[in-house]
Design a protein that fits this description.
The complex is a heterodimer. Chain A is of the alpha+beta class. Chain A has 3 domains: 2-135, Beta-Lactamase; 196-280, Helix Hairpins, CATH 1.10.287; 288-440, Histidine kinase-like ATPase, C-terminal domain (Heat Shock Protein 90). Chain A has helices spanning 2-65, 130-180, 196-245, 248-280, 292-309, 330-348, 403-413, 437-440, and strands at 70-75, 81-84, 94-100, 109-118, 121-128, 288-290, 313-317, 326-328, 353-360, 365-371, 417-422, 427-432. A 5-stranded antiparallel sheet of chain A has the order 2-1-5-4-3, covered by helices on one side. Chain A has a 5-stranded mixed sheet with strand order 7-9-10-12-11. In chain A, helix 5 (292-309) runs parallel beside helix 6. The longest helix of chain A is centred in the N-terminal third of the chain and has 64 residues, at 2-65. By secondary structure, chain B is α/β, with parallel strands linked by helices. Chain B has 2 domains: 2-120, Rossmann fold (3-Layer(aba) Sandwich); 123-221, Winged helix-like DNA-binding domain superfamily/Winged helix DNA-binding domain (Arc Repressor Mutant, subunit A), CATH 1.10.10.10. Chain B has 8 helices and 12 strands. Chain B has helices spanning 10-22, 33-42, 59-68, 84-92, 105-117, 153-164, 172-180, 190-202, and strands at residues 2-6, 26-30, 47-51, 75-79, 97-100, 127-130, 133-136, 141-144, 147-149, 170-171, 211-214, 218-221. In chain B, the strands form 3 sheets. In chain B, strands 2-1-3-4-5 form a 5-stranded parallel sheet, sandwiched between helices. Chain B has a 4-stranded antiparallel sheet with strand order 6-7-8-9, covered by helices on one side. In chain B, strands 10-12-11 form a 3-stranded antiparallel sheet. In chain B, helix 6 packs across helix 8. The longest helix of chain B is centred in the first third of the chain and has 13 residues, at 10-22. The two termini of chain B are 25 Å apart. The relative contact order of chain B is 0.10. The mean pLDDT of chain B is 86. Classes of the chains: A alpha+beta, B alpha/beta. Chains A and B meet through helix 4, helix 5 and helix 6 of A and helix 4 and helix 8 of B.
């Protein structure tokens, strides 16, 4: 701000000097013209009335137009003053500068003078240059003053603006401090001016929305994990108490059940670890192309007897045309599909038919798992992807509730779209993969 | 067999030492990665059970150093981090097998047996035989007592893995890896269902059962003893 002011003052001073010079040279020109005109008038007077006419003109001019702006002098060729108010004849002819001595009313001053011969006499006409310098000074002063005023008002405006900016920055700092302190509900105010501050504030608010969403989900997950680990631990505790109280030949039976419970706990923890590691990494170096149709046919074969035992069916509907190879981590995507199949089997109920489908998307496969079960109400379709979400708590006691959270994490790792749709009746989970080219570019 | 256990957790180490000693192995134990490395370089041992996380030097670095020094001792990794990436990293560094903690002792024994006998069956076998059961690896035809058994693709793959490891227990995890290429445990009874289908074809019509279940361990195929 100070720098801007200094530059402004310098620029205005240069402009002022320039104007001063122009004005002062214009005024000097005017003075010369006036002096030259007097000379013409005096030559005229001398020609009409001779020496006497000239002396009379000078005496008259000295009396009426002289001090302080003009001075006149008439000298003999020997330099003796005949008329006028200039005491001594100048040493030059033509244009020059003479200095008039100080009088009672006027200080000594330099004047622009012209000396020349008219008839037998030396005539001097001098005009004060003061007017020129006075006007110039006035202009210079005005410009300097204007410069100062502009600079000061610039400073003032800048100060006010910076005060407003720093007030907004302070508010921003306070808000972020509050967030760091654990309050993710605070938001920055957005004014209706739509300036850069509002732009930044909107961005920050969007991040805060995402942050509080994540924190809420983290909190819910932590609670859910605690709950899910507590129930088997309770069961283990009861089983162990029974084992202690039971006769020796029954102990082994209780301990085997304890072992089963521990297996379940281990599986839950392994799954949580796997999900968080899949979510944390964006490494795609292990991705490779593979035949999705072959994988789906293989999975249908693997699950056919399992479904049959549950009075369900599973079938792979091969696409009619060619489909691009899938690109990704084959085993991860296999797990994603297994989770979708097992989920469909779990919720679709006895008698349900599960269909695996494949089609060509944008140079990459689109895969779906459909079932003929009751489906999921549209408003619940997003929440089922949250960890430990359960459609029906009592019905699904043994599930970990992590199957679809894993699906979501694997899909995200592959930047693939996963949506649940109405299969009329039943549910379709549709996975839209990206082509290999989408990863090499990144 | 002389086995070195490199594991800094005392409880886990003691669990392994007790179990392996009972199985008749001679067991040495170190708690530091650098000690594990120098033990293997200056002593002979038949198997190294290596924990991933250890003071001094982590398991992966120990393994890399061993392989760089042309030490070919079979290595089973132990880890608490159950993830594919770890597994792949461990196997790439020259590990022979990988086990996620906590594990059943029977799982470890099954893997030790499989690992230490592995070189024996790398020949160009085209036919596997257990008692009166034959499997032709070229035509994918199974016969028992001369009678052809119709097998579905997954049943065939399961039988092949069992017969290639005849006499050894294969855990559910091992079967999921080798037959289905699953590196996770599905919630449904994939292994049990296919095993039951296979048994109904291979064992049920005949007097003698060849496929055996060991509770909390796994499955094996062997001739009647």
């Amino acid at each position: 701000m100070l720098l801007v002011t200094a530059v402004l003052v310098i620029v205005l001073s240069i402009a002022g000097l320039f104007a001063y010079n122009r004005i002062s040279s214009a005024l000097t020109e005017q003075l010369r013209a006036s002096v030259a005109e007097d000379f013409v008038l005096m030559q005229d007077a001398e020609q009409r009335a001779g020496e006497l006419g000239l002396a009379q003109f000078i005496t008259w001019a000295s009396a009426t137009r002289a001090a302080p702006s003009f001075a006149f002098g008439l000298f003999t060729q020997g330099g003796v003053a005949v008329a006028g108010n200039i005491a001594t004849a100048p040493a030059f002819t033509g244009w020059g500068t003479i200095t008039l001595p100080a009088t009672a009313t006027e200080p000594a001053r330099a004047m622009l003078a012209r000396a020349g011969m008219i008839g037998d006499h030396i005539v001097v006409v001098a005009g004060a240059n003061e007017a020129a310098s006075q006007v110039g000074e006035a202009v210079l002063g005005t410009l300097t003053l204007a410069g100062l005023v502009i600079a000061l008002s610039g400073l003032a405006v800048g100060y006010i603006a910076s005060q407003s900016a720093s007030r907004k920055l302070r508010q921003l700092a306070r808000t972020l401090e509050s967030v760091a302190g654990g309050n993710t509900e605070v938001r920055l105010p957005i004014s209706d001016r739509n300036d850069q501050f509002d732009f930044v504030s909107r961005e920050i608010n969007a991040y805060l929305d995402r942050l509080s969403e994540l924190m809420a989900s983290l909190r819910n997950t932590a609670i859910a994990i605690a709950h899910d680990l507590k129930s088997p631990l309770n069961r283990v505790s009861i089983l162990l108490q029974n084992a202690v109280a039971a006769p020796p030949e029954e102990t082994a039976g209780y301990l085997e059940r304890v072992e089963d419970e521990m297996e379940g706990l281990k599986a839950t923890l392994d799954t949580i670890l796997r999900i968080s590691r899949i979510e944390a990494s964006d490494d795609t170096s292990a991705f490779a192309p593979f035949d999705m149709g072959a994988m789906l046919a293989d999975l249908a074969q693997t699950f056919a007897p399992v479904m049959e035992d549950q009075q369900q069916t599973i079938a792979y509907m091969a696409p009619s045309g060619p489909v691009s190879p899938a690109f990704g981590d084959r085993r991860m995507l296999q797990q994603l599909l297994v989770n979708l199949i097992e989920n469909a089997a779990r919720y679709a109920g006895p008698g349900a038919a599960i269909t695996l489908g494949l089609a060509e998307g944008h140079s990459a496969p689109v895969v779906w798992v459909s079932d003929s079960g009751p489906g999921i109400p549209a408003e619940q379709r997003d929440s089922v992807f949250a960890p430990f979400y359960r459609m029906n708590a009592e019905r699904d006691e043994r599930g970990t509730g992590l199957g679809l959270a894993m699906v979501k994490a694997i899909a995200a790792r592959h930047r693939a779209g996963i949506v649940l749709e109405d299969a009329n009746p039943g549910l379709t989970a549709r996975l839209t993969l990206l082509p290999q080219a989408a990863f090499s570019r990144a | 067999m002389k086995i070195l256990i490199a594991e800094d957790d005392r409880t886990s180490a003691q669990f392994l030492i007790n179990g392996l000693s009972q199985e008749g192995h001679s067991v040495e134990h170190v708690t530091d990665g650098r000690d594990a490395l120098s033990f293997c370089l200056y002593n002979s041992c038949d198997l190294l059970i290596l924990d991933r996380m250890m003071p001094g030097m982590d398991g992966l670095s120990v393994l890399k150093a061993l392989r760089a020094a042309a030490c070919a001792v079979p290595v089973i990794f132990l880890t608490a981090m159950g993830d594919v990436d770890d597994r792949v990293e461990g196997l790439l560094a020259g590990g022979d097998d990988y086990l996620v903690k906590p594990f059943h002792f029977s799982e470890l024994m099954a893997r030790i047996t499989a690992l230490t006998r592995r070189p024996q069956e790398t020949g160009q076998t085209t036919r596997l035989t257990v008692h009166d059961l034959e499997l032709d690896l070229l035509t994918h035809v199974a016969r028992r007592g001369g009678e052809q058994i119709e097998l579905l693709a997954k049943e065939y793959a399961l039988l092949e893995v069992l017969m290639r490891n005849a006499g050894r227990i294969l855990t559910k995890t091992m079967l999921l890896e080798q037959v289905w290429d699953f590196n996770f445990d599905p919630r449904t009874t994939v292994v049990e269902t296919h095993m039951s289908r296979l048994r109904s074809k291979v064992d049920k019509p005949f007097d003698v059962a060849l496929i055996h279940t060991t509770r909390n361990s796994g499955y094996s195929i062997h001739a009647p003893r």
